UniProtKB/TrEMBL annotation:
<comment type="subunit">
    <text>Homodimer.</text>
</comment>
<dbReference type="InterPro" id="IPR019591">
    <property type="entry name" value="Mrp/NBP35_ATP-bd"/>
</dbReference>
<feature type="binding site">
    <location>
        <begin position="121"/>
        <end position="128"/>
    </location>
    <ligand>
        <name>ATP</name>
    </ligand>
</feature>
<keyword id="KW-0479">Metal-binding</keyword>
<dbReference type="InterPro" id="IPR000808">
    <property type="entry name" value="Mrp-like_CS"/>
</dbReference>
<dbReference type="InterPro" id="IPR002744">
    <property type="entry name" value="MIP18-like"/>
</dbReference>
<protein>
    <recommendedName>
        <fullName>Iron-sulfur cluster carrier protein</fullName>
    </recommendedName>
</protein>
<feature type="domain" description="MIP18 family-like">
    <location>
        <begin position="4"/>
        <end position="69"/>
    </location>
</feature>
<keyword id="KW-0378">Hydrolase</keyword>
<keyword id="KW-0408">Iron</keyword>
<dbReference type="InterPro" id="IPR044304">
    <property type="entry name" value="NUBPL-like"/>
</dbReference>
<keyword id="KW-0547">Nucleotide-binding</keyword>
<comment type="similarity">
    <text>Belongs to the Mrp/NBP35 ATP-binding proteins family.</text>
</comment>
<comment type="similarity">
    <text>In the N-terminal section; belongs to the MIP18 family.</text>
</comment>
<dbReference type="GO" id="GO:0005524">
    <property type="term" value="F:ATP binding"/>
</dbReference>
<comment type="function">
    <text>Binds and transfers iron-sulfur (Fe-S) clusters to target apoproteins. Can hydrolyze ATP.</text>
</comment>
<dbReference type="InterPro" id="IPR033756">
    <property type="entry name" value="YlxH/NBP35"/>
</dbReference>
Length: 359
């Protein structure tokens, strides 16, 4: 005999494709009625125009088709009431009341997520490209990765990922990050129409940054990379205060001027007691026909790492990311992709060591 419990057990493996939690756990199964070998099931979606409606419909039907003894069923997809959405948000917040969201679970002392700020002393060294490609390389290796585009004025992460017009899904006052290349992304880009400039003073930047933690559901995530604005301004101070245990990667090019400016960022990290994981030298050389051409000079990354008493993590060669795509993500098999894969392994190992040692 078919039971309601059997129906719910069959539906538990079905996940909401945006938040990656069971539709049963999320309270999306509103109604189950059994009549002999027939069942009527109603599943409710967060909004009427849910973009993944067809995906959920298909997966629920496949799950119901596997219930032993169930010969026929009627499936109805509805829309959540305000009360159901409130319960949905509560589950996403881990039962945390919404008024406590100013201190989200992501920032709790016992949170498992690690934060790595990717910083540079000046613009134009490819810091955002390094952030994006490191995140993708870590995702390829099985890490659950997110990026916060903390460069509120000069946001560029969505462009590097080729996200286009995609926007975060909004469930009342809760945002779900946009996902590209298996990386969760949140950026000011999603809230500024027509590439308009952001004309804000410092305090507004910090408020927006905090919203990226308090009003975004990141889910289970291993590491969040923060693409920092260049220099040592307000946003860098906010990050250091908000994330006292965050680690830091310094990006430079081989040029003497770039390394001198980057040294200031490293010194700030040291003064604020943030561990520097190491230095990434970007645009290290251009290779053609097996010969390396050091267009921007050589040795800058090594000099900077010695000055900051840290590791030279990687030397990334120049190259076009993808001639057939609008994004700036290097293919895994390219020379740059392989360099980022090595960098991802190194960063992963350092973060795992930090967990072991409790740092």
């Amino acid at each position: 005999m078919v039971t309601k419990e059997a129906i719910l057990d069959a539906l538990r493996p079905v996940q909401d494709p945006e938040v990656h939690k069971s539709i049963v756990e999320l309270g999306m199964v509103r109604h189950v009625e059994i009549n002999g070998d027939h069942a009527e099931v109603e599943v409710v979606l967060t909004i009427s125009g849910c973009p993944l409606r067809n995906v959920i419909d298909q997966e629920v039907r496949e799950a119901l088709g596997k219930v032993e003894g169930l010969k026929t069923f009627d499936l109805k997809l509805g829309t959540m009431t305000d009360e159901e959405r409130a319960q949905f948000r509560s589950v996403l917040r881990g039962g945390q009341p919404e008024e406590a969201a100013v201190t989200p679970a992501l920032l709790a002392p016992d949170a498992k997520t690690q934060f790595v700020a990717v910083a540079s002393g000046k613009g134009g060294v490819g810091k955002s490209t390094v952030t994006a490609n490191l995140a993708v390389a870590m995702a390829r290796q099985g890490y659950r990765v997110g990026i916060i585009d903390a460069d509120i004025y000069g946001f560029s992460i969505p462009g590097i990922f080729g996200i286009g017009d995609k926007k975060p899904t909004v469930i009342d006052n809760l945002l779900l990050p946009v996902v590209a290349h298996d990386v969760k992304i949140m950026s000011m880009h999603f809230f500024v129409p027509d590439n308009r400039p952001v004309i804000w003073r410092g305090p507004m930047l910090g408020k927006m940054l905090r919203n990226f933690f308090a009003e975004v559901h990141w889910g289970d995530i291993d590491v969040i990379l923060l693409d920092m604005p260049p220099g040592t301004g307000d946003m860098a101070l906010d990050i250091h205060q908000l994330l006292p245990k965050s680690k830091e990667i310094i990006v430079t090019t081989p040029q003497q001027n770039a390394t001198e400016v980057a040294a200031r960022v490293g010194t700030m990290a040291i003064q604020t007691q943030h561990e520097i994981l190491g230095v990434v030298e970007n645009m290290s050389f251009f290779e053609a026909k097996g010969e390396k051409h050091f267009i921007f000079g050589k040795g800058g990354g090594e000099r900077l790492s010695l000055e900051l008493k840290t590791d030279l993590l990687a030397q990334i060669p120049l190259g076009v990311a993808n001639e057939e795509s609008v994004d700036g993500i290097y293919p895994a098999e390219s020379a740059q992709g392989q360099a980022y894969a090595h960098l991802a392994k190194t960063i992963g190992r350092k973060l795992e060591q930090a967990v072991t040692t409790g740092k």
